[in-house]
Amino acid sequence: MALKHIKLKIQSVKKTSTVTRAMEAVSAVKMRKAQERALGGRAYAAAALSILEKLAGTTEVKQHPFSQERPGHTALILVTSDKGLAGALNSAVIRRAEQEIRDRNLQKGEVVVFAMGKRGGEYFRSREYPGVTIHTNISDGVSESDALEVTRHILAIPEITKVLVIYQNFLSTFEQKPVVRQILPISPETIHQMVAGIVPAKGKYAGIGQGENWTPSTYSIEPDIETVVNELMPKLLNVAIFHALLEAKASEHSARMVAMKSATDKARDMVKELTRKFNKVRQAAITREVSEITSGIEAMK
């Protein structure tokens, strides 16, 4: 490789390194804010779902349509990002969704995909899944209204009898795990799993709900339990989707920061390697020129 080409490649890698370093810094700031929101929202999500868990054992909830196992379509709420450059963040969620479809022996016509993020939606749309709905440009300041649109859309389709939400659960800055949560039909077991998954193993928010009685309790409900349950169930389902969005945002920025840091480090290593190669080629060229000059002088003698 010529010296000029090596020099141009070094300059190109340095420019790329500048971009990745800037993206790493931006993602680090967004990551801290998203992590605080996700971790802070876990107490709210756990408390809200624990209400539903305690009510799940009542006769009214057991007879509610949301608690009944019925034949019909399965809705997949797939939470990915709109952008790439986040390592295996999106591909891991997509693979987890495909695995769930295979494990449940679902056909394309039995699956309705609600994609929160362009990456997941485009993937399933390109594979000709019918009725793929894509919600994009979800801001970092995720609100319950973002989830409410999806919740209302799902509840407006009577053919949907089962709802799964698939997203990256935030564990730490360097670790995220794709998970599947069943939010319909509702059962005490599925809600208990969701609450257990929300509570972190350690840290400020660890131990939420521990030591409490998680068995169904007796409530005095006004005006009547049917009215309250009909009003409460959609809102608590919306909380589950909202929680998934918060976790996914924290995971996205964490994964992107780590990916950009890795890219910056690799670019730095590549610059060092190319610089060594440049010096070797230049030294070889100088040695060759000196050798040619020496040979010419000897020939003139």
Describe this protein with a few key phrases:
5 strands; alpha/beta; Pyruvate Kinase, Chain: A, domain 1; 60% helix; 7 helices; Helix Hairpins; single chain; 301 residues; 2 domains
List the helices and strands and how they pair.
Layout: H1 3-55, H2 59-62, E1 73-79, H3 89-103, E2 111-116, H4 118-126, E3 133-135, H5 144-155, E4 160-172, E5 175-184, H6 188-198, H7 225-300
Parallel strand pairs: 1-2, 1-4, 2-3
Antiparallel strand pairs: 4-5
Characterize the structure shown.
The chain is about 60% helix and about 15% strand. The chain has helices at about 5-55, 60, 90-105, 120-125, 145-155, 190-200, 225-300, and strands at about 75-80, 110-115, 135, 160-170, 175-185. Strand 2 (about 110-115), helix 4 (about 120-125) and strand 3 form a beta-alpha-beta unit. The longest helix has about 80 residues, at about 225-300. It is elongated.
